[in-house]
Amino acid sequence: MATSSFYGALLRRQLALALRRPVQLLNPLLFFAVVILLFPLGLGPAPDTLSNFAGGILWIVALLANMLGVDSLFRGDFDDGSLDQLLLAEQPLYFVVLPYFFVHWLLNGALLALLAPLFALMLGLPARATGVLVLSLLLGCGVMTVLGAIGAALTVGLRRGGMLIVLLITPFYVPVLIFGAAAVQAAVAHQPAGPYLALLAAMLSLALGLGPAAVAAALRISVDS
Amino acid sequence: MADAALLSARGLGIERAGRLLFSDLDLDLLPGEIVHLRGANGAGKTTLLRILAGLSRFGFEGKVSRPQPALYLGHQSAVKPLLTPRENLRWHPSGEQFGDAGALEAALDSVGLYGYEDTPAGQLSAGQQRRVDLARLHLSERPLWLLDEPFTAIDVQGVARLQQRFARHAAGGGAVLLTSHQSLDLDHGVRIVDLALAA
Predict the structure, then answer these.
(1) Strand pairing of B61-65 and B7-16?
(2) What are phi and psi of B10, to 5 degrees?
(3) Are B82 and A25 a contacting pair, CB within 8 Å?
(4) Could you report the per-residue pLDDT of B61-84, keeping only the tens digit for each?
């Protein structure tokens, strides 16, 4: 097969699989919505308090929503033997995993980022920070997807990898959270958010450059047991 | 020897859970050969097949050389219940080109799935789902086939047709290595490798 058309085929396969299971598609969104709705109840509806925390809240919830879905990234393919076939493909595994990243980012990252302004409004985040919020989530969820995929690839062979993956990847999510939330804070405080966004973009470049190799190696180890 | 081996393994040995499954096993597959790998449950047939396919790379002794990637058919059929048989093949994760729509339909037809091309595989029976995977045998151009229990869940006529397919593949210069607890009945010569004796 022309190499590029294989990646296209995988992309369409992943998209079709995700879109035909609407419940799973809505899971991260529902989680995002429910948790954010709980914050005004817990913290009190005073607009000042809420808008102070809004950036951090949105970022933490997006991080958790992203982490929630990442465990299942390769699990289905591992269980039904598709992963074996994938590893036997002649195309380099480094590129083969990219469609998986993209679809996960799209549904557990980009979709959240695009809906975030709505929830930001609810929490009283100043309108001037909305653009930075969306951009930082788009970049940050990309980094978290790649990092999460490494964890997912390492634990896919384990029966109960769910908790382990959280322990494995949370430390690596921390810098993303720090710079992501800081970008929003900076925008709220009338300071330039550019440097933070640039750092997030740098992390994404690094993750995209090295992550696929780590995922490929981890998948080979997971299948080989 | 004019034909280069499609698969050659030297001195294979493996231990699982403190038990030696086999050791010092040599195996060559030449074009035109059909090899029936036999052994009791737990004798290491699947383990051996995964090593030969290149899925297991560590934890065994010996060397495997495979000039071209194999078509590997495992216990699990890699068929997604949410996708139709047509989509399962067109977007197959093995990265092989499965020809045009016509070739795909012909392959599904020859495994008895005519009329089911666009039914989600989840609504098909276990045997039919298995047949979706087996349709690859009518599409693939890889000469080396490693098949782990290809007859599972397949009916009597299906098994007969599969065996004809194996014979045709071997006659066309391919090689087949399969595990099965059934004995084969085909016109083509079959070499039997018994794992219990090889150990």
Answers:
(1) antiparallel
(2) -130, 130
(3) no
(4) 889 998 888 999 998 889 999 999
> What ipTM does the predicted assembly reach?
0.89
The token duo for A63 is 């991080």
The number of beta carbons lying within 10 Å of the beta carbon of residue B67 is 11
- Residue among B59, B69, B96 whose CB faces A1 most closely: B96
Distance from CA of A7 to the nearest CA of B (A): 9
- Cα–Cα distances (Å) from A124 to A129, A174, B6, in that order, read 11, 25, 67
SS3 B144: strand
Instruction: Output the pLDDT for position A162.
Output: 75
Phi/psi of residue A62, nearest 5 degrees: -60, -40
Six token digits for residue B127:
């045997």
Q: Which of A3, A13, A98 to mutate to test the interface with B (most CBs of B within 10 A)?
A: A13
- The pTM of the whole model exceeds 0.80: yes
pLDDT-derived band at A138, boundaries 50, 70, 90 = very high
